[in-house]
Amino acid sequence: MREALALARRAGEEGEVPVGCVVVWDGEIVGRGRNRREKTGSALAHAEIEAIGEACRRLGGWRLWKATLYVTLEPCPMCAGAIINARIAEVRYGVKDEKYGACGSVVNLFAERFPHRPRLFGGLLADECEALLQGFFRGLRTDAKEENNNLSSKNRKT
């Protein structure tokens, strides 16, 4: 999870929502990912999708039946679907996503009648994951407020 946090920090430094993910197979990290939606302009550029894709390429197949996925934020429906389809054995996430979480916060896709249901564990390094996300969004709000103040200032001068 520490590696996932490092990837999340890197995403935040690049202006992305700070989410990081690793896929572990037999104790070795075989896939890494971080959010890159802004950079790529793709709704598909989530940390989990990137990490799963790398793991499949490295292992030479799509069935990740012995893998554990570590991610800093509860997976969304798209990522939970990818986890199910990749047959990932276990998911460990940091903090709940009350808006888009598909592992219990909004819905739990892993509890549905799919033929594969990963084991799920939440709250891993939750304080660190939450602090990283809160800091990122606080920064966005501060930047937006400063920009708004600058525009107001300009308008008063003209």
Explain what you see:
The chain is an alpha/beta fold and about 160 residues long. Helices cover about 45% and strands about 20% of the residues. It contains 5 helices and 5 strands. It has a 5-stranded mixed β-sheet. A hairpin with a 2-residue loop joins strand 1 (about 20-25) and strand 2 (about 30-35). Helix 1 packs parallel to helix 5 (about 125-155). The radius of gyration is 18 Å and the shape is globular. The mean pLDDT is about 95.
Keywords, separated by commas or semicolons:
158 residues; alpha/beta; single chain; five-stranded mixed beta sheet
Q: Rounded to an integer, what's the Rg over CA atoms?
A: 18 Å
Low-confidence stretches: none
**Average pLDDT number:** 93
Global morphology: globular
Kindly state the number of beta strands.
5
Question: How much helix, percentage-wise, in residues?
Answer: 40-55%
Give the count of helical stretches.
5
Distance between the termini: 52 Å
Major beta sheet summary: 5 strands, mixed
Tell me the β content.
15-25%
Q: Structural class of the secondary structure composition?
A: alpha/beta
Order of helices and strands: HEEHHEHEEH
